[in-house]
Backbone:
């Protein structure tokens, strides 16, 4: 049972969390102005990197706050967590996406 | 003030005897009909104002709670999130406390919602209270890790709970559980106590 | 009568407690403290059973959980298969028999209790051998919170197989003192009979504690028999010891052939001799200790056969003093015997430079009679948990074993698990690991004196020998067993490499070596060695197979723990649940909720009950418990704006006091939920969700509020369980409500459809209700909301007030029929995440005016505008009595061709209707609305049921019944 460090509550068991997919995918300013293709890209397409990945998590069984986390998809290691509205921490050398 | 008990039923009314039978291994009893208000506010001044109105400062740190007395009697304030608190007062104080909170939060943004019947409350203590909780709760409740006042939202067995440490040295806890899960949790507590009851009998 | 092979004194068994047991039909006795294996050996029983593939007799190879052969089935006190005799503690009345590789599960429920418990610590120590105890003692004295686990019933680890002295006292005194100190130290939890079987992320370790297994029939029923400890450790010290490695030779599987160190354990721990006359096959000095200890104990030791070119001088001399023939430069090439080894063949080893490659056999074999052959092929550090924790392994060619390499930051290894053999080195490593672990958690370990131990007479390095060279017999099956449990031989390994397999993982799967209960604890390294030899590669270049949890078998019952029966999954109940139970309701599971399904009267079947309930709702008055509906309070200045984005229709324009039905879509335009929205105040709404989606919708709201629109002044709070909700349905519902709410003007004009009112109920002091005039049946209906505390009293008051009108409680089935007759979809039944509001025929609920809302942009996608999308329609079977199965496919042919058949859609709901006096169904069908009036077919069983496509609204199309 992995621990996920909630930015508010501290480390808790992963069973308390819900996964929310890729972080920093903003809802388009004016969906009506997008082509079908652009809209489909927003709705259906997400990155799937081998390596660090910025994701959204919700501490659903705890404080119910959404937050962002950079997780290495190879090791499950959470490299950093940060609150909504905070910028993604600077990419370190381990933060390079392996292609 | 309790004139309407004949028409009020708490979620664990039918479990009173079964829970009482867990003593002395586990002293557990429902504290029914407490006033509970969910408060949302992130403005520090408004939060301070609400604390003044109730006579108890709102908890500043995540996963903590405060307790105090004021115009509405004993009041506990539980941290539920960075802009969310649960105010718990004695039975039948809902209208006054709600009005006071609503007045205090304005003009800042915020919300006050009566959630009194949303959860019921269990007081838990006794020589094996911490043992029993350890059967279903992944949080470290050792006094060094969870001092008095600690208040976490977590899972106990398969139910979401709010768990407050009332007295770390005496192993006294409060559990708040969604009303629909209350019977499950009561059944779970009875089951988890089986071994400790036998050891003491 | 004492067992024949039990020494008169010695061992850590309680000779005052004699235990009777039966094995393979023979009644025997042993002592408290025995394992089944030691008790069998004490009685001269070596043959346990036969092997899985070849039916060869098999015995006991080891003294612990690494044993590959001693599989037994327990029959009494409760049937349990696939245990090893070496790990079953003896108890009175035990009945067991040997197993040929497969056991039998009990055909009755296991009455024992199993549970789980969490533990947290600064330092977890696995193992209570000398290294583990030193680590635990050091950390505990430093004030750290310590958990110590050990697989055995008694602390001591490898010392149990020795007569070592510590601080010039027998080791037991030091160990017992240390255990007593640990037990007396607050913050230390010492768990014996507890196997750490898995190491996971973030210091999470699972351990299985066998708490009452050893009590047999006397195990108290209330006590959990086995417990899974869920340990969260900041630092972990692995002092897991080492397993002795066998050497492979022909007929190496006969009962009576054991590991040398294990024989010492049987001698010193249990006071048991493994036989009368032994031969010891040594590749290192440690096997000599077995020869000397057994000889000292009175057993005849015929010879030590040492594969090394020269024997260690001092040990040879001590053997000679006992009359033991030491044959250096010799190997065991085979054995004789039936149910027990009776002789060994010994031949000179060819080559003499001490390297494994050079060892062969030369010269004629000599035969030595014996009933015991002890084999010492070196030691494998137990690195399973270390590897699971993420530690890297390194091949040590000197030891012929993988040893811990790079350790994760929070994990330390100490003792023979590192490859150390010297007792003083193990103690020192334990102390160091304990110090470092305690320091890392902020504790300050004091100086702990290392107990003095005798230096080991390690005169000569061991020889790494996987197998005695030689060819397999041409005309007979190979009997050089690598994995005794899987009956896999050297030939099997060579067949795998010959087939081109070079990865050990592939060889494992090809040969099944290492896949039995023991997971290859004694065979894994040997297999790797033979593969490396066959391929001509260095073993250090071979990656060992992955060490996966569990380290030892864990019963499913223990993993399930208390999560069974009523505790398996919470049953969520409403405030009125007890009434429903008392009334004889049958329940339907909706998510975790228990909802009344229908309320049969005595003698009624489901159809009859549901028809009766439906009639009451359409003709009189009926009452339902709808408390499970999700309810969310939405407050704030921007609440209307927010709901406008979430719902497809416009909510900000709703007047205070009014209610609107709303649909919610994902950004892909597919319906995710529906419900009503009540405007309580300018800045406050109450929204309802479907029962199953309450948590999802609240999460959905929070997701948008927290991540996309934090600037909005809106707060959402669940009040699902704060309110009890009772739909009161039917033409007489107004009368019932009027009787209970004398202050409420229930007239159709004063209290119009889609309005709500707060009112006092004549139920008791302080009982107020929020009454919503909404209908999910098409009938005049009111939804009465009171706090859950008042739920039972108000429900009973409604039933009493309605008695004169024949008020009828109804369940979810009737609700489904009533709404289906009206064509109202149920989200999750008619929809499946591929259905748009337009598909449901609910374009009327989609705003054309709002600039944006979630899902709007997707409605313009070409895919969502195809004319052949599946649309919600009604289906009327031509035969009014045929009820279609839900999920059945819809086709447009009356004669099914060979597959594939084009499917037009499927039946989503299907019922018998009292109001229509016939069966009917809802379905999603391609271009369904264009097909109204067509005859389509539904395959049911071997036949096709013809159905007429209709509009989805089948009852009261004009909506005349809404106002009563």
Residues:
């Amino acid at each position: 049972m992995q621990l996920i460090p909630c930015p508010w509550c501290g480390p808790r068991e992963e069973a308390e969390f819900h996964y929310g997919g890729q972080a920093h995918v903003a809802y388009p300013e004016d969906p009506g102005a997008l082509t079908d293709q652009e809209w489909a890209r927003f709705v259906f397409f997400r990155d799937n990197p081998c390596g660090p990945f910025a994701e959204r998590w919700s501490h659903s069984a705890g404080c119910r706050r959404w937050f962002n986390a950079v997780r290495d998809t190879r090791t499950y290691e959470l490299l950093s967590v940060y609150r909504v509205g905070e910028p993604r921490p600077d990419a370190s050398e381990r933060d390079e996406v392996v292609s | 003030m309790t004139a309407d008990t004949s028409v009020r039923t708490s979620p664990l009314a039918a479990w009173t005897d079964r829970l009482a039978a867990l003593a002395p291994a586990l002293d557990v009893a429902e504290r029914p009909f407490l006033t509970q208000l969910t408060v949302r506010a992130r403005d520090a001044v408004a939060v301070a104002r609400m604390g003044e109105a109730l006579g108890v400062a709102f908890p500043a740190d995540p996963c903590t709670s405060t307790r105090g007395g004021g115009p509405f009697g004993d009041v506990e304030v539980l941290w539920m999130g960075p802009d969310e608190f649960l105010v718990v007062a004695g039975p039948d104080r809902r209208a006054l406390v709600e009005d006071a909170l609503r007045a205090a939060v304005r003009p800042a943004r915020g919300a006050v919602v009566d959630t009194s019947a949303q959860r019921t409350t269990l007081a838990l203590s006794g020589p094996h209270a911490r043992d029993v909780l350890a059967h279903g709760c992944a949080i470290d409740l050792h006094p060094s890790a969870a001092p008095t006042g600690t208040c976490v939202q977590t899972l106990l067995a398969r139910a979401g709970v709010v768990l407050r440490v009332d007295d770390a040295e005496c192993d006294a806890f409060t559990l708040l559980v969604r009303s629909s899960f209350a019977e499950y949790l009561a059944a779970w507590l009875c089951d988890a106590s089986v071994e400790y009851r036998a050891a003491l009998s | 009568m004492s067992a024949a092979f039990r020494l008169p004194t010695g061992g850590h068994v309680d000779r005052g407690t004699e235990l009777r047991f039966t094995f393979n039909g023979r009644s025997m006795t042993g002592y408290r403290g025995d394992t089944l294996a030691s008790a069998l050996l004490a009685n001269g029983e070596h043959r346990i059973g036969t092997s899985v593939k070849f039916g060869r007799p098999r015995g006991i190879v080891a003294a612990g959980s690494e044993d590959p052969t001693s599989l037994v089935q327990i029959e009494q006190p409760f049937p349990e298969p696939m245990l090893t005799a070496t790990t079953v503690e003896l108890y009175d009345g035990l009945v067991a028999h040997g197993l040929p590789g497969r056991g039998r599960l009990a055909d009755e429920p296991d009455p024992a209790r199993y549970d789980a418990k969490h533990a947290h610590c600064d330092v977890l120590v696995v193992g209570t051998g000398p290294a583990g105890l030193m680590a635990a003692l050091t950390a505990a004295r430093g004030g750290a919170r310590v958990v110590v686990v050990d697989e055995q019933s008694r602390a001591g680890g490898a010392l149990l197989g020795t007569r070592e002295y510590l601080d010039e006292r027998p080791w037991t005194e030091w160990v017992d003192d240390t255990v007593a100190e640990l037990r007396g130290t607050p913050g230390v939890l010492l768990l014996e009979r507890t196997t750490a079987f898995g190491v996971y992320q973030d210091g999470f370790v699972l351990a299985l504690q066998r708490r009452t297994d050893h009590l047999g029939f006397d195990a108290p029923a209330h006590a959990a028999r086995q417990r899974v400890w869920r340990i969260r450790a900041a630092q972990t010290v692995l002092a897991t010891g080492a397993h002795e490695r066998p050497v492979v030779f022909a007929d190496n599987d006969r009962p009576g052939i054991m590991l040398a160190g294990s024989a010492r354990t049987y001698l010193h721990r249990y006071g048991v001799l493994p036989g009368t006359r032994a031969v010891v096959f040594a590749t290192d000095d440690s096997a000599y200790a077995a020869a000397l200890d057994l000889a000292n104990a009175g057993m005849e030791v015929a010879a030590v056969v040492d594969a090394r070119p020269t024997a260690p001088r001092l040990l040879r001399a001590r053997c000679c003093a006992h009359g033991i023939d030491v044959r250096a430069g010799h190997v065991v090439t085979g054995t004789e015997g039936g149910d027990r080894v009776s002789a060994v063949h010994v031949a000179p080893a060819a080559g003499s430079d001490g390297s494994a490659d050079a060892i062969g056999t030369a010269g004629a074999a000599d035969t030595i009679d014996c009933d015991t052959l002890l084999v010492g092929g070196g030691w494998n550090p137990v690195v399973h948990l270390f590897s699971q924790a993420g530690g890297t392994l390194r091949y040590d060619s000197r030891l012929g074993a993988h040893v811990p390499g790079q350790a994760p930051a929070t994990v330390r290894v100490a003792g023979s698990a590192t490859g150390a053999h010297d007792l003083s080195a193990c103690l020192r490593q334990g102390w160091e690991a304990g110090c470092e672990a305690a320091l890392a958690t902020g504790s300050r370990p004091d100086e702990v004196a290392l107990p003095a131990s005798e230096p080991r007479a390690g005169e000569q390095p061991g020889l790494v020998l996987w197998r005695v060279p030689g060819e397999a017999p041409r005309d007979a099956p190979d009997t050089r067993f690598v994995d005794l449990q899987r009956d896999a031989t050297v030939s099997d390994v060579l067949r795998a490499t010959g087939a081109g397999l070079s990865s050990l993982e592939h060889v494992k799967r090809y040969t099944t070596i290492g896949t039995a209960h023991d997971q290859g604890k004694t065979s894994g390294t040997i297999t790797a060695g033979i593969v490396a030899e066959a391929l001509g590669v260095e073993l250090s270049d071979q990656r060992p197979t992955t060490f996966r949890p569990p380290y030892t078998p864990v019963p499913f019952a223990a993993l399930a723990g208390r999560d069974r029966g009523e505790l398996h999954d919470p049953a969520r109940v409403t405030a009125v649940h007890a009434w429903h139970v008392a009334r004889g309701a049958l329940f339907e599971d909706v998510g975790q909720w228990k909802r009344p399904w229908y309320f049969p009267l005595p003698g009624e079947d489901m159809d009859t009950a549901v028809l009766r309930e439906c009639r009451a709702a359409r003709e009189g008055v009926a009452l339902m418990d709808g408390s499970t509906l999700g309810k969310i309070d939405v407050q704030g200045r921007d609440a209307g704006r927010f709901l406008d984005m979430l719902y497809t229709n416009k909510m900000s324009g709703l007047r205070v006091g009014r209610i609107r039905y709303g649909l919610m879509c994902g950004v892909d335009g597919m319906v995710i939920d529906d419900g009503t929205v009540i405007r309580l105040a300018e800045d406050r709404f109450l929204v309802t969700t479907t029962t199953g989606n309450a948590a999802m919708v609240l999460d959905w709201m929070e997701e948008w509020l927290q991540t996309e629109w934090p600037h909005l002044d809106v707060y959402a709070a669940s009040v699902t369980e704060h309110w009890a909700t009772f739909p009161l349905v039917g033409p007489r519902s107004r009368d019932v409500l009027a009787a209970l709410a004398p202050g409420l003007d229930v007239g159709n004009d004063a209290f119009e459809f889609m309005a709500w009112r707060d009112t006092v109920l004549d139920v008791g002091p302080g009982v107020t209700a929020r009454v919503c005039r909404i209908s999910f049946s098409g009938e005049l209906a009111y939804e009465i909301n009171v706090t859950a505390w008042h739920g039972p009293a108000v429900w009973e008051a409604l039933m009493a007030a309605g008695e004169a009108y024949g008020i009828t409680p109804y369940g979810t089935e009737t609700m489904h029929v009533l709404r289906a007759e009206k064509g109202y979809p149920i989200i999750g039944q008619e929809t499946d995440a591929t259905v748009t509001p337009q598909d449901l025929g609910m374009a009327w609920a989609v705003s054309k005016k709002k600039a944006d809302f979630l899902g709007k942009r997707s409605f313009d996608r070409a895919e969502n505008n195809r004319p052949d999308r599946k649309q919600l329609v009604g289906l009327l079977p031509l035969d009014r009595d045929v009820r279609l199965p839900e999920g059945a496919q819809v086709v447009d042919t009356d004669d099914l061709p060979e597959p594939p058949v084009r499917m037009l859609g499927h039946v989503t709901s299907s019922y018998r209707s009292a109001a229509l006096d016939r069966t009917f169904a809802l379905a999603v069908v391609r271009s369904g609305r264009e097909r109204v009036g067509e005859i389509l077919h539904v395959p049911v069983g071997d036949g096709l049921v013809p159905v007429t496509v209709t509009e989805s609204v089948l009852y009261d199309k004009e909506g005349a019944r809404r106002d009563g």
